[in-house]
Amino acid sequence: MNSEIFSSTLRDLVNFVQSTYDQIQSEIPTAALLTGINMPDHDAQFSALTREIREFVTPHCVVQNAQDCSSIKLFIENMINGFLNDEDATIEDMYEDHEEEECNYIRKSCCTFAVLQAWYENLYLNNSILNYSDENSFIKRGAPNCKPLVVIIPDIENFKENVIQDFISIVHSYINIIPFVLIFGVATSLNVLHRTLPYHVSSKISIKVFSSQPSTAYLNNILENVFFTGHCPFSLSGNVFNLLTDIFLFYNLSVTGFVKHFKFAMMEHFSRGNEFSLCTNKNFKHILDQFSHEDFESLRHIYSFRDLVEGESSYKNQLKLLQDDDYLRDVVLIKLEKLRKYTFCLHLFIRCLHVLVNDLPKTPLGKQIRELYAYATTKNITKSQHFNECFQLLNFQSRDQFCMKLTDITNLLENNKTINNICSEEVEKINGDLKKYLKKLKDIDSITDITQSFQEQVQIGSASSRQEFKKNLKSISLNQSKNKYEKLRDEILKYLHCIFETYLIEYNTLHFHEIFFFDDIDIQNQIIGTHRSAIHEALNDPQTYLQCACCEVKREAAILQTMPDICIAYKLHLECGKMINLYDWLQAFLSILDPTDEDDDDCKRSVNPELQARFTQAIAELEYLGFIKTSKRKADHVQRLTWGG
After folding, report:
1. Quick one: CA dihedral 231, 234, 235, 236, positive or negative?
2. In the chain, N or C terminus with fewer CB closer than 10 Å?
3. How far apart are the first and last CA of the chain?
């Protein structure tokens, strides 16, 4: 699915790289790929792009990240090293033959453009006679089969402006000697390129813009083809699903993150006990036969089991449910089959409902299937105001639109009845009925045929007030006769309404729904981390994370000698005000780590260099975490940036 979602963009980019040097270039061919701000998904996208270019265009393709290119020197060294040296080769392979290593392997510090030019000429030109003064590049005359060198920069926003500008200027000076192609990944907008590259630099590159598919479309594709199918028995409740989609829409737009959160919810679900192994499409009886008495007792602790017991009219059957494991096994088997049928029908008829309502005015139930799913698993969707509003709007559909929607629904039912044998007979019957209705719709003449006349003539002109006029219009609409199409449309909508009422019920009305539906909203505490409180907890009470006895404290304010240095420094800084004297802080630090060396009134405490180095490192770590910063007013003080942890 990753390949499919990027396929069109990748194909266009590969074609661009292939055709860049069909003609002589005076500017650097450059592609600007608008990727969107879903940063965690960029790795998969650029990995796929690198793979495609190396397979179909050129083996010379390197990826340069901003974190490795803080200066132009590092940029050039890393890039040329990527072209010249095989990064996948192991150290043993590199140094297996010392003489071969001296000839073939080039140290990174020696990677310059002169070396790159010599390597490229030796690789493709085979001692051809060159004339660099000619305005035409040697690429077409001396080596028609030469491959371009592709440099991919996934995060151009993170690069320093002067580094990018100098790099483009240097590469442009070699454009008639070495065929470079640049690919910039732009997460925000093209204004970034205009701000980063002044005219004297931008005039040296020829930019073509490519756009990748939005993350929301990628997410919808994943949900509809993976999670909302009969193959996936595990389902999220509406509350948990809304939590994951809100994180996706308002935090990072990362499909990778959404899938990881879904996996976390699945892990939490299946780790609760053996009874949740029944969340499967396989044979329930085989799993139940392996259950022990403790596993059946765990089943009895499921909340919906209480409703099952209270719903039994027979006191004898209630006792059997509570005491007889064999009887409970038979009951659970029936309930699970009903649940499996429900989950399959839920996903199927949500798709059918989506076909009907996705293009209605103001889209009362949303445009995407995920919105419908969240609605249907939160409340009874068929009793909602939005559902009724949608069916009112469907009463105004033209015959062509309505036929088209019914055709899509019948195709959907036809394709899904073979996926799973669950309720295949019911789906086939519904599909047959809709096909009959569809045939009747197509047989109706396009010219409206009024079958009835007005039962009562209303004189609109006789109205003496606006209220009376409105009443007369309402009377006309009630008495107006319907043509054949309108009657048939009402009949079809009534039939569809009954189907949705039958299959789109609330999941929590079914017994043992907890086995198939995960509804623990508390996972937001693990998924959405509170970073500040977690860091404070780790530094204030390291035993919480380290799980070591030496760091265990009985009082929150206690400071132990065995704690990590940064924890000691952090707890001491909590006792200080806005400005912290570094010398006093150091003395307090030493008094904890070296309590035997007491202060003397006549002389100052001698500072152990090792302890001072440890203190300095702890201070640097706290500054990196953002708890303190150096003060410009006093050289021997630091300023505290947080209060109360």
Report:
1. negative
2. N
3. 45
Question: What pLDDT, on a 0 to 100 scale, did the predictor assign at position 436?
Answer: 92
Q: Using one digit for the tens of pLDDT, what is the confidence trace for 543-596?
A: 888 888 888 887 777 888 889 999 999 999 988 888 899 999 999 999 888 877
Contacts of 250 (CB under 8 A, 6+ apart): none
Enumerate residues 6+ apart whose C-beta is below 8 A from 570.
539, 540, 622, 627
| pLDDT tens-digit series, residues 349-398 | 999 999 999 999 988 998 999 999 999 999 899 999 999 999 999 988 88
pLDDT tens digits, 265-306: 999 999 999 999 999 887 888 999 999 999 999 999 999 999
Contacts (Cβ under 8 Å, ≥6 apart) of 459: 472
Q: Both tokens of residue 635? A: 């050289």
Q: Which residues on adjacent β-strands are paired with residue 236?
A: 518
Distance from CA of residue 304 to its chain's centroid? 33
Per-residue model confidence as pLDDT tens digits over 90-105: 333 333 443 444 445 5
Quote the CA–CA distance of 113 and 208 in Å, as a whole number: 26
Q: Which long-range contacts (CB under 8 A, 24 or more apart) does 265-268 make?
A: 265/236, 265/240, 265/518, 265/520, 265/523, 266/234, 266/518, 268/518, 268/520, 268/523
Query: Would you list the DSSP string of 169-236?
Result: HHHHHTTTTS-EEEEEEESS-THHHHHHS-HHHHTTEEEEEEEPPPHHHHHHHHIIIIISSTT---EE
CA atoms within 13 A on the CB side of 632: 0
- The alpha carbon torsion through 298, 300, 302, 307 (nearest 10 deg) reads 180
CB-CB neighbours of 258 under 10 Å = 24
116, 128, 132: which is closest to 180 by C-alpha?
116
Cα 327-332-336 angle, rounded to 5 deg? 160
Strands (E), 257-374: none
Maximum Cα–Cα distance across the chain? 117
- Torsion angle, CA of 166/168/169/175, rounded to 10 degrees? 150
Q: 484 to each of 49, 94, 403, 437, 442, how far by Cα in Å?
A: 56, 82, 15, 13, 12
Quick one: angle between helices 72-84 and 113-124, nearest 10?
Answer: 20
HSE, side-chain direction, 13 A CA sphere, residue 118? 8
Six-digit token string for 187: 């997460």
* Cβ-contact 627, 540 below 8 angstroms: no
Alpha-carbon distance of 204 to 200, in angstroms, equals 7
Q: Which residue has the tokens 């509003």?
A: 389
pLDDT tens digits, one per residue of 51-91: 889 998 999 999 998 888 889 999 999 999 888 875 443 33
Quote the tokens at residue 116: 């790159």
Domains of the chain (ranges; CATH) run 2-213 (3.40.50.300), 218-448+483-518 (no CATH), 531-640 (1.10.10)
User: Which pLDDT tens digit goes with each residue over 405-437?
Assistant: 999 999 988 887 555 566 778 888 999 999 999
Residues 6+ apart with CB under 8 A from 108: 77, 78, 81
